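Progress against Task 2.4 (sequence-to-structure conversion) is shown through the following example record, which the project officer requested during the mid-term review.
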Amino acid sequence: MSNQQFIKSTISEDQQLLDSMILLSQETTGDQQALSYYTQALDQIESMHKTSKDIDEHQYDLLLNIFDIYIRQYNLIQAHFFIDKALQLASKLQQLDKITQCLDKRGRVKRLQGDPDSALLDHNQSIKIKFKIYENEGLDISNSYIYIGNDYHTQGKYNDAITMYEKSLKIQSSLFNVTHPNIATIYHNMGLAYSHQGKYDDATEMYKKSLKIQISALGDNDPTVGTTYSSMGLVYSHQGKYDDAMDMYGKSLKIQLSSLDDKHPYIALTYNNMGLVYSHQGKYENAISMYEKSLKIQMLAYGDSHPDTALTCSNIGSIYGYQGKYNDAICMYEKSLKMQLSALGDNHPHIATTYSNMGTIYDYQGNYDDAVDMYEKSLKIELSALGDNHPNVATTYNNMGLVYDRQGKYDDAISMYAKSLSIQLSTLGNNHPSIATTYSNIGSAYCEQGNYVDAIWFYEKATAILVDTNLQHHPNLAVIYDNLAVCYDNLNRQDDAITMRQRSADIHLSLKQVDTINQITTNVPNQSQALLDKVQTKDDIMKDLSNQQIQSLPISNHSDNPGYNHNYSHAQQSYDHVLREKQYFKAYIQALKQGFCKNKVIRAMFAGPEYVGKSSIMRVFTQQRLAIFQDPTQIADQSDKMVYLKVYKIKDRTPYDLRQIWDNNVHQIVQETYETQINNQQILPILKLNQGFIDQQLPIYDQYPIPAIQSTTANPQNKTKTLTSFSTDASTISSTDNNLFLQQCRDFFQYYYPSWLNKSTDDSQYAKIWDFGGHSIYHVTHQPFLSGNSIYILVFNIKQNIHDRVLTREGHALNTTYLQSMQEWLTSIIGGNGNQDTIKVTIDNNKVEYSLPIVILVASHGDYMANEQHKIDRFVKFERELRTKMPRYNSNIYSSRIIFNCNPQDNSDIVQAERDQCSLRLHEIIKSFVQSLPFMCNPIPVRWYIMATILHTPTNNSNDEIVSSFVNRIRNTRVHKIMTIQEIASLATDFGLYEGNDELIDMLSYLHDLGEITFCRQADKHGIIVTDVDWLLRIFRAIIQLHDCQSGSFEIQSLYDEASKTGKISTKYIDYVLAPYELTDETKKSILDLMETYDILCTIKNDSDQDESRYFVPYLLRPEVEPFNLSQYHVSDTLYIGYEHNAIPYIPDGIYYCLLSSCLKEWNNTDVTLYYQCAKYYLIHDHHYIIIKKEKSHIAIQYCYKRSDQPEIEQFVIDKVKNSIFVKRPHDVIKSKLSSIVDDRMPKFKSAVCQYYIQCSNCRELVSLCNKVGSQESLMQCLNCHVLFKSQSIIDWMTCKAESFEETNQRQEKKLTPYDFSIDRKKHNQKQSNISASNQDVCRECFDIIASKLDENSLFRLGVKLNLPYKDVDEICNRNIRNYQKTYQILTSWREQSGQQGDLIQIITILQEMNKITIADKIQTTLDSSK
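Structure tokens generated for the chain above:
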């Protein structure tokens, strides 16, 4: 407390004298002079016979001033004496604020005296009084939280300390600006706590926050800024970043020298810390120099009895110890001890540390009894002052263990290390560098005993911690690597030993410790350069791990477990836990390579027309209440209320979290592996210890030396061997990658392990429920999300007839009937699955064979019919109509005859019971099918479940808090909404989950089947994976669900209007609707690529590069758009394309829209117009339109061209159209496209044959062209009414004679119009050098290429373009032989006809005209290579 201006009183002459003495004291500058006047004033007051309240308050202030001086002088005994007197006076005055002030100050003294427990009592008593005084939490209470936090810090309870600091920070943040220096102080304290926990990154972050505020508020030359730089330097020093540490200390020293007196104690502290860095670097002379500078300042500032002076003497003693000057070291420690006893008493933790340091010197001298005596003195003080669970106690146990180790008392050593480890795990967490020290020392004890396998295990645990805490270049890690090399030598694993020594040498090189490197190289076996350059791969590591060379995880923190007892009598349990964890980790590693279990999850998807009550049935089925005003499902119901119950146990309908199911599967596989290893005696024996694990931590005061790590010297014959050379770069890369890989394996194991200890295995099966949108506009988007390995529940409305039009929620009729909608669904679901398997299922004692996938038919709106029999009759009628219209699907559909009551306003007991009965019935049906599905019997590798956990996107209300920060960190840094195969492979590789590309594809397909991801192999060349399905669905919805633009610029409104009237959208439209998602250009491109892959949209390539890109999206067209006006056109008769009714009874809208997009790509023409389920393409070079229309289950096509009043132009156009239809054959293109799309998107019907059909003139049924009568090309017979009829369609599309086209070509050649492609082709051929068809070998090779590549639909066009007779070409194409043979015969016929004049360049040109560019290029390459 600084000198204060006291309130003057004139009540007596004595008081006036007192005032004059106080005034005199304020004018002094030195503590000793001020102390003299304060003491005289105090004596004057105490000599008064009569005092007053004012006098008492003056006396109180004097006592506090005297207290402050003694605190600055670190005279804690006198400080304690005077604060006690002040507290008595405050109690006399009955002023609570003064009482709390004294309690706070006395608590500080007790903490500095090494009694944090008593300090905590004072500070807790103070804050209780403050809560009574103040209504709100203000600055005084905030300060109390800081004091209590400091007490916890001294006790080693760092988490509790941080909690207190955070409470203080919250209060002060509300009182002050964020740049107030008080805030900086709190951040600084938090940084100290994190530093002592070994959380160096967190500590640095706190210091940087503090530094930023200090510079802003106080300037960059304030001493507090220098203090923060110094604290950051300590963190870097702990991390082994000595250059960075010295940089921080240099900044600190520069500020201190410019802003403080050069004899200020802060400068001494900085010199001391710089000495510590030099000590760690082995630069002992430099360290001594720094310590001596520090000591000189401290002696001037404090004298020879201050604790800081004592600490510097102790640090000098440590340097002497490192230099082997043991007597000098003992002398310095004794000098330090004398100072500490004088200033602190005989029970302070600092004194305990000095005893411990003296014990270390005796240990180095081989005076083991004296060493143990010193450690026991240290331990006695620490147990008394700090309790039995403080990090300093752990340090002493560790040092005692080292003594026993050197004496060959390895069991006693391990017992001490175990005690040390137990304390560390409970106070420091499981990843502190000091714990690495203890693990290393345990490993050394085992190594000395010849137990090299266990020694390796503990060394590797130590290595893992140091690497994880960014200490991979610390000298201690080099020591551990050397010790590992010794163990590997004794196990005859020379390659591993060399690798360890390489890693050690790399660390020393990085620290520029040339002398140390030379010493190391004399201890390394002489191996060839090839062995030294060998880099261990991850597969090698996995192999080593499965052969008992296990790096295990840090032990789980049991501080939150009320049943966990840290008493030494239970130390054995801690040790058993460590080894059990080790055994499980070994089983985990082996399971990663070999572990499988049956699949337990299947997706159950609710589907059906819009507005039929799918979501209501799903809610009833998942035991939820119905919502009265429930919104229609958009695409897949992922709303907050539905997500939690979307996964349930099939056995009893219990809701489950999908991530927990995967965790259980991993546990089951690892548990089985663990038990197998136990039975086969593959697990290392558990070594029993008298007292289990415990450990040490870095001391609170960084001036104390870090406890030494013992360097193993077993197998001394290795010392004479030398290392000739080694590859630094290779070793460094290998070490870094492998350490990262192993650490990630450990981290994932740690994520699972705590939940396994008391868990039993479970073989239950589960269903993941989806509610798929029924809107017709969504059908085109179904394909990316459907799976053949799902069960589908198809819902229809029982109150509607199957031929009725679908009604909206408002009662408006749509263009689609319920039959068409059901056909859409069934064709998408069943046709989209290429699986031809069947299963036999017993339901209601009837064993029936079903084809996959399974579709269960259920009905909704049973509440509209009271008569039960009437309901069943309606169900049967609907079912019968469906079977008749869709006979191909009968073996896939199970008719449940379940009719749900979906009235949300009726929740009576009777209705609830009825709903429960329906749900239970549906549940039993699903269970029967699930138990028979091959998908549920597939063995799933454990790797897949772990990858599923990584990629899993938690829903908004799922209980995902228990997911570890480790997994969340992976999701946040490595998992993106859209990923490539390469990114997934890299992720899997890093965690030991990659076993080849084929398995990776299988895994992604499995997750796609479950609906966890969307996996498209065809997109973006190598494949696209969308990890957030709900996000993708929302984006699809934003693009395809077109609504009127409610507001916005005229431009935006026109974009919406254009999309609804033309079925085309622009890039601006897409940018506008996707703006809320804040997508990057790369992500947006990936989404558009994905949509184009599935023909959800199609890019319209413009003739001008300046035009904006546009997309063809035909399903956006509104139904009310007017049909085409063809009154001025000549229109051909209609030709139909499709399949036999028993093969593919219905072509869904999705296939039709894909066909339109595919044709647009083929013709590459922007001139396409639409109306409802009809498109008109203009073929600009052929002067006519092609009309493609969907009519029920077939595709109807026509061509048309505009009439002309001028006969010459009319004839020219007719000739061009005939040439187009006969030679280019657009109907063949459309048929080929449809066949290809069906094969790709409906693999179930891959064997179905796409055919041409014409309409019977009598009964209007469609007749296949296969039913032509005799040689009459236009004469047909209808199989339905048996009438013979002539078809104009055949004449318009098929029957143009070859000679008529020869006449047409002759007319065109005479006119030489700009559209004369045949003349252009002849000119082009004249420019080419002829390559004669008489060259037999080249010709045969080219023919083979064409015959193997050309599709059947293009064969006829090729023959005609080669000027072969029409009848010959037609006859060859109709032969019942392979397409290869047909093609070869046509080419042979051309060669025979053309003779020596046959030019293969002519074939190349024709192939290019037919858009067979790949084949043409292949032929050209063959010809070029033959020259």
